[in-house]
Description:
The chain is α+β, with helices and mostly antiparallel strands. It contains 14 helices and 36 strands. Helix 2 runs parallel beside helix 14, helix 7 (332-349) runs parallel beside helix 9 (385-396) and helix 12 runs parallel beside helix 14.
Amino acid sequence: MPAIPSLSLRRFCLTLFLASALxxxxxxxxxxxxxxxxQEMIGAGKWGCVSGLTASANSLTIQAGSGYNTxxxxxxxxxxxxxxxxxxxxxxxxxxxxxxxxxLTLVGALNTGANWWExxxxxxxxxAGNAIGVSYWTGGSGNGTGVTMPLxxxxxxxxxxxxxxxxxxxxxxxxxMQVGAFADPGLFAAGRVYFGFNVAPGNTLTVTSLAAxxxxxxxxxxxAPYLQTAARSGTGLRDAAAxxxxxxxxxxxxxxxxxxxxxxxxxxxxNLVVAENAMKFAATEPAPHQFNFCAADQIVQYAQxxxxxxxxxxxxxxxxLPGWLTTGSYTPxxxxxxxxxxxxxxxGHYKGQLIDWDVVNEAIAYGAPYGAQPSYWLNQLGSGYxxxxxxxxxxxxxxxxxxxxDTGGEGLGAKSEAVYNLVSGMVRRGVxxxxxxxxxxxxxxxxxxxxxxxxxxxxxxxxxxxxHITEMDVRVPVDSGxxxxxxxxxxxxxxxxxxxxxxxxxxxxxxxxTWGVTDSYSWIPGNYPGFGAALLFDTKxxxxxxxxxxxxxxxxxxNPPVIFTNGIVIHGGRSTxxxxxxxxxxxxxxxxxxxVTVNGKxxxxxxxxxxxxxxxxxxxxxxxxxxxxxxxxxxxxxxxAITVEAAAPSILTYGDNWGVVQNQDFSVNSATNCAAAxxxxxxxxx
Length: 686
Ligand code: XIL
């Protein structure tokens, strides 16, 4: 279990201040004290990221319809426990207590399997009928163990409950009196306690206090998943990127912070984050004029705790809009006011904390002829909405760097042209745009040509604009278990490396972000059925081949090798017609000390200089398209695809000589150096 820091002192003071305005927690038993920061755990947005309840400043209300409403707060505060502890709460129920009741739920270990109970360690204590009802689950079955304890005389209505772990016992108090105890089956042995509630069908639970306590001298702490700090190896992608002055980032969903592997991999490998969904319109303004930054703030807090930068994504998009807006009946003027206010409030909330914003996302259509993307904003405001959004954003935060972000226009072609025309038009009109985001959701089988990406980045440099690769993933076909072939993962690695190389070749390209951390939580399988495994880390957070190729590309010193366009040819000739066993020439630069690989496997080299390498196409190379790459201590070249043909028996050619045939005196036979009649010839065959 990685170390999780306790909440900062500033937060602790704030909590105490707020507590005075709230209903008091149940009284402490003698010799017990509050866990620092845990005297009041209801207010100040601590439950704002949890769905299924209504959180106000001083109470939580949880209702159940026809089924149970079971809530676990996996993103908010949690306890880290080593010794004795207790959780105190004040609860009441509107129901007649005739149903199965309302419960405080303490979770010691989250569900780990397909069934809700797998791995789950959970304790429910609450009001059930006219008694205290207790149930617990130990991870092996959905059937909980039930214990009924009496409700003390005179205790009804609003009840103070305390659930304590005292050595190896779970002890329950109601109204300050001990009502029962049983042997603890190790419910909190993992050292964590998540808070939650469980409400039986038809019941309503109101919670007016929630606190945690411990015997004086214990060292339990209040923490939160989003405040974990990752152990830094010093050899993460971020370390290599920082040495090159580059930001390497990932899209983040804060609900995954409760997965310790996620929080560790993210902070160890990346120095930049972007919210995958948490900063979009529907998430930040779920009701008119009502803003919710709960999830987005958790991302920013995580980033700050881990020394990472944050990108903002996204203010204006045709997707992720709330129903109140799209189904509301607003006039164009009202819609403009809504968008302006949204931009001002969201930008204002994060003023000075983010490195940049994707102000407008995907304003060009996904398909030919690449006109304006159909959208609510286009309908309401007309095509001028793009310029307006940037102007409003600039006025709201003149220091924020403002980006236009789009998909499918990463290389050259019609979409790229449309994006370039839009952005260059903005520059011409004096619209405050600082950069362009190239999303880069690509396939391993047909990635955009790397030279095209580099050319595209360079033409934005000529406009004075920065470029970020904002959402890279490289999808490959996967089987029903999510597994990809080794060959596809190698091609994926080459695509990642090539995009990074194209970025590194242009000084205005300053960040590369992948759209997620791990293949476990990628959007690809849900959106491109049959595809997956698109990210740098696998489902167990192991670095994939792609992560290693990114790292070697980042780690190089000096200038990496370059293969010239059409620079791979048959030895001595001009064309690329090569076969297994052929000698092949590579013309390029920075080739000293270079190792040639074919589909990732080292190939024997026969000659090397700064601008020419001669290698032999390995005999075991299959026919078809193969990737040739040159690596040196400075890094790797882009991968070049060439076609290997089956070898037909033939006489070896050399340069402009039609065949390598030697006369009896071992001179090369040619039109001007003919063989004498009756002499022996030596022909070199392949
Ligand atoms: C995607 C998220 O990854 C999904 O979780 C969500 O359901 C839909 O949006 N281009 C973008 C991103 O700019 O915001 C999109 O993110 C992926 C495509």
